[in-house]
Design a protein that fits this description.
Length: 372
């Protein structure tokens, strides 16, 4: 009799959720890790795709489970975590250098997403969080001064929206004046609110600021589920679930959930928030209050997410639907200056010469961007 197949998603999610709860693995989790039905090649592939492979290796080690794995696999996971830890130390140096340049011209940026994790020590160590670039939020009136200061310090523009990089730098520095680009999304969390509530912190010898925990959660959920169409795709990234749960369990302050609910409700984005919070509760990541009862559509969406978590075919179909929606949306923004006049823009997309080619190019570009 062949062993019962264990889904890779369940292995990764349960290991990370267990580590969030403490440093002792249950008997059930130990049995899962040792089960013959676990395809560890697929587990590693999923964790890598979802950007939680270093966290998985660290969690297995902290839970005293890594010794149950094949010696080569265990060594690989330890090496991945160590390499990411070293990478993040380099990124901290890069962040310190950039913030130092801005401090010298009187600017204290607010750190966003991964950059903030280099300041607040949310995770057990520096190797948990994977970073691609460093995002800094500035007042709009400070952007020109910030770019000039960075250029004089040897940074060069490498994009059209405030992206800067120095020749020998470890990564790109992204300067933002808003957290979102579409008008409705901006109303979800305006930059002015984040800047007003941000608190000062130190990073070595330089000074930066961190958003409130409520603003971090709104940005995290809104970025993945609204901006990058996770809700439309039926996809909630494991990295986002891990980070949200870490903020709730390991954050240094309690979350004002009424404030979080209020922002999504006011912007008309209650369904994406509800789906995200349901996934946290259902997966034992952490217990969070919901913005209201789950209706039939919310339950259906939750089941869709659970199916796509465990089915590569369903996930592929859902992602393609989401990418096409994203391609249409990006063209609406370009053609209409960010305003929501979808009917007129759709007419332009259908009637204008070269519209199909432009839409296909947008689809390819958007697909690459959404994966990152």
């Amino acid at each position: 009799m062949s062993p019962r197949r264990v889904q890779p998603f369940d292995v990764v999610a349960q290991v990370l959720a267990a580590r969030l709860q403490g440093r002792v693995a249950s008997d059930e989790l130990r049995a899962m890790v040792r089960a013959r039905g676990v395809d560890w090649e697929r587990v590693v592939g999923l964790a890598s795709d979802q950007l939680v492979l270093p966290a998985l290796g660290s969690a297995l080690r902290d839970l005293d489970l890594i010794g149950w794995l094949d010696q080569e696999l265990g060594g690989f996971l330890v090496a991945v975590h160590a390499a990411n830890r070293e990478r993040n130390r380099e990124l901290r140096d890069e962040l310190t250098a950039a913030v130092g340049v801005l401090n010298r011209v009187g600017i204290e940026p607010v750190l966003l997403k991964g950059a903030l994790r280099l300041l607040d020590d949310l995770y057990p160590d520096d190797g948990w969080r994977m970073l691609r670039d460093l995002d800094l939020l500035l007042p709009e009136e400070s952007l020109a001064n910030a770019r000039q200061a960075l250029e004089e310090a040897g940074y060069e523009a490498c994009g059209t929206r405030g992206e800067m990089r120095r020749r020998e730098g470890a990564c790109q520095i992204d300067l933002h004046t808003e957290l979102f680009t579409v008008a409705r999304d901006v109303r979800l969390l305006p930059a002015a609110d984040v800047l007003d509530a941000a608190r000062r912190g130190t990073l070595g010898h330089v000074s930066a600021r961190r958003p409130s925990i409520e603003h971090q959660l709104v940005h995290l959920i809104g970025h993945g589920q609204v901006r990058h169409l996770g809700h439309a795709q039926g996809r909630i990234a494991l990295r986002d679930r891990l980070e949200a749960a870490a903020l709730v369990r390991w954050g240094r302050e309690a979350v004002d959930w009424q404030a979080v609910h209020g922002r999504f409700n006011a912007a008309g984005y209650r369904p994406p928030l509800l789906s995200f919070l349901l996934s946290l509760n259902a997966g034992a990541w952490c217990a969070v209050p919901l913005p209201g009862p789950a209706d039939a559509l919310a339950i259906l969406q939750q089941r869709r997410i659970e199916l796509q978590d465990r089915s590569a075919t369903a996930a592929y179909i859902g992602s393609r639907i989401g990418w096409w929606i994203s391609a249409f949306r990006s063209q609406f923004e370009v053609l209409d200056g960010g305003q929501r006049r979808a009917v007129r823009n759709l007419s332009k997309l259908i009637c204008e010469r070269g519209a199909v080619r432009r839409l296909a190019r947008a689809f390819v570009d958007r697909q690459t961007h959404l994966i990152q």
